Amino acid sequence: MDLIAAGSHSKAIAAELGITERTVDVHRFNIMRKIGVRTLADLLRHWHQAQ
């Protein structure tokens, strides 16, 4: 989540974590679905409020 909040793209996150870009996208989608948000901006807003 820190990498997403820092503005990193899926490709950069995948390279840093040693996983595929698709895996990053799936995890992001699942997080957004569980939190109940539709946009990345909403996800980041929730993340900042939680900290």
Description:
This protein is mostly helical. It has one domain (2-50): Arc Repressor Mutant, subunit A, CATH 1.10.10. 75% of the residues lie in helices and 0% in strands.
User: Helical percent range?
Assistant: over 70%
The number of domains is: 1
- Total DSSP helices: 4
Structural class: mainly alpha
Could you spell the SSE succession in H and E letters? HHHH
> N- to C-terminal separation?
12 Å
CATH class bucket: Mainly Alpha
Question: How many individual β-strands?
Answer: 0
Q: Which range does the strand content fall in?
A: under 5%
CATH architecture term? Orthogonal Bundle
Query: What is the mean pLDDT?
Result: 92
CATH level-4 homologous superfamily: Winged helix-like DNA-binding domain superfamily/Winged helix DNA-binding domain
| Most strands sheet | none
Estimated radius of gyration: 11 Å
Fold-level CATH name = Arc Repressor Mutant, subunit A
- Envelope shape: globular
Low-confidence region ranges: none
